Each structure stands twice: as C-alpha cells, then as structure tokens.
Amino acid sequence: MAPKVEAKPKCKISASRKLSLKILLLARATEELEAEKAAREEAKVQYLGEKLPPLQLTGLNGDDLQKICRQIHEKIEMVDEERYDCEAKVLKNNRDIHQLNLKVQDLGGKFKKPALRKVRVSADEMMRALFGSKNKGSMDLRSNLKSVKKEDIKQEKELTLEVGDWRKNVEAMSGMKGRKKMFDA
After folding, report:
1. Which pairs with CB-CB distance under 8 Å and at least 24 residues apart come from 2-9?
2. Which of 124, 120, 125 is nearest to 138 (CA)?
3. Which of 64, 125, 136, 149 is the S-S candidate for 60 at Cβ 3.0 to 4.6 Å?
C-alpha cells in the first residue's frame, strides 16, 4: 500500500499580518529606489565637476574669452568623437548578435524543401492561366510547327548521293570547265 501523503498545514500568519508585511516591503523598496536615484545624481554631479570645472569669466578680455571658447569647442569635439565611436561599436555588436542569432536558428533546425510533383498542363490551360479568360480560342501549338514532306527528304538524299566526295569532283563543281589545270601548270 502506498503511504498517505499528508496535506501541508495552512500558513499560520493572519491576513492582517500579511498585509502589514507587504506594506513594509513596499516602503523599504521605495526608500532604496530613492537612495539609488540620489546616489546617481551625486555621481553625475561629481563626474561633471571633475570634467568641467566652473568657468571664471569675470574680468576677462576678448582674447581670453575666445581662448576659453576654443578650449570648450575642442572638448566638445572630443566627446562627439568618443560618442560616435561608441555608437559605431554598439551598432556593430548588435549586427553581430543578430547574425549569430540567425546562425543559431539555422543550426537548430534545417528546413526541408518538399519534393515537387510533376504537373501536366495542356496548352489551353496554360494560356488561360497566363491571360485569364481573355483568350477564348484554343491554341494548338503543333499547328505552328513547320511541316516536312517526304518528297523533300527524298530529293535531299538524291543530291547528296550525286555530289559524293567533293574532293574527287573539284573540277566539275568549280564551274571553270577544266581551267584549273591551266593554273596548276
């Protein structure tokens, strides 16, 4: 016989106690979120204080102001270059990740192409499929083929028998009536 499995006893915490614990957990989570935001803001202010010291513009003439503007402009250019490089790296990494995901999907399961069936379609059905119902007359493709009569075949065979070997009948076929011998001599 299988031993009986006893049901677990219900939790002995009352509903009001559960609610109070839930409220305490939510309060603690909101405090931690606020502390995290404050820490981020403080780190941001500290970083900007290191990278950008406060400007002392009082009592400066035009040349000094232009020099400060050039320095600020150079810093802006450097930051833009770094930002562009980081964006290019991110785009390249995203492209690589996409390609690797495609490779993983390809390796996961190959798609088998189904074997195609041979389908016989008559010329009329093909014309209907191509041109729709516009083409009402049936089109017999064999009627357009060139017809060869048996008489023509017999005449061609007789001509080939008469000519025979062309090397033997060079003088007869040349139409010079024996003048070739004059040139050879």
Report:
1. none
2. 124
3. 64
Least confident residue range of 22-26, 35-39, 67-71, 81-85: 67-71
Gap between the Cα atoms of 101 and 133, Å rounded: 48
Measured distance CA(129)–CA(137) in Å, rounded: 14
- Would you give the end-to-end CA distance of the chain in angstroms? 128
What is the total residue count of the chain?
185
Structure tokens at 135: 């083409």
Summarize pLDDT for 171-185 with one digit per residue, the tens. Answer: 555 555 555 555 555
d(C-alpha 172, C-alpha 181), whole Å: 12
What is the three-state SS of 144-176?
A: HCCCCCHHHHHHHHHHHHHHCCCCCCHHHHHCC
Per residue in 48-70, pLDDT (tens digit) is: 888 777 888 788 888 988 998 99
CB proximity list for 139: less than 8 A, separation 6 or greater:
123, 124, 127
**Rounded distance, CA 2 to CA 65, Å?**
92
